[in-house]
Amino acid sequence: MRIALSIAGSDPTGGAGLQADLQVFRALGVHGQGVVSALTVQDTVKVHRVLPVFPNVVLDQLRTLLRDAPPDAVKLGMLAGDEVVRAVAHGLGELPEGVPIVVDPVLAASDGTPLLERRAIPALLELLSRCALVTPNLEEARELSGCDVSTRAGVEAAARTLVEECGAGAALVKGGHAEGPPDDCLALGQGGSTVVHWLTGRRLDVGPVHGTGCALAAAVTAGLAQGRSLEEAVDDARRFVVEALARAEAAGSGARLLVFG
Ligand code: PXL
Predict the structure, then answer these.
(1) Which CATH number does the domain housing residue 13 bear?
(2) Which of 2, 179, 198, 260 has the highest CB neighbour number within 10 Å of its CB?
(3) Is 11 near ligand 1, meaning CB less than 6 Å away?
(4) For the segment 225-259, what is each residue's pLDDT rounded down to a tens digit?
């Protein structure tokens, strides 16, 4: 059995967060584990409240799990607060060597509600040095790298900065929020040098959809848990999300939800 672990916030709608990650893992044939980092109160329209889990309880969930049933890959999503980020970093010290970590550096919900407090950013940046891949959207890439991402050259600089200065193994800067083609920029660290690829996307006219960032990072994590290379896992995950977007359905009066498989 291949196992993927998600450390993420709860989204009761099932559209994003831990509930969505577990659906993605299931759809891709890996067993899903979940450590809850925060509770949210939300519907398909907006996030009403955010409540971080006690950091020592996050640490306890993680350590207890790692000692018994260590995963083959780990995904980090919404972490809510500085102490939770530090607890996760501490707990991941017990992750067996070589288990890849994918960081979706969730800063805010689509409605603008902060999902990570700003003072947690330095601790999140420290975590990047231990990750195989970080998957920011444009706003997150700007915030984490300090680069102006309004041009393609700026997006490339942000992706390179996350690899060369922050120490991520690779960075996938997602262009879905850009005007124009939703191309993603993948920077891969390769023994001292960085290779940058643009992965072209096409925009689907589906209106607002919730949870695409969570699904993409979860799908990459599932691929890595199954032993795929990073580039292969990213390609497969991008295709998986496009298919889920094409099938998206409304469950409430707000954003549509992805439909997997
Ligand atoms: O899509 C980002 C995200 C991640 N995790 C949780 C969320 C959201 C967006 O609302 O609620 C728990």
Answers:
(1) 3.40.1190.20
(2) 260
(3) yes
(4) 999 999 999 999 999 999 999 999 999 999 999 99
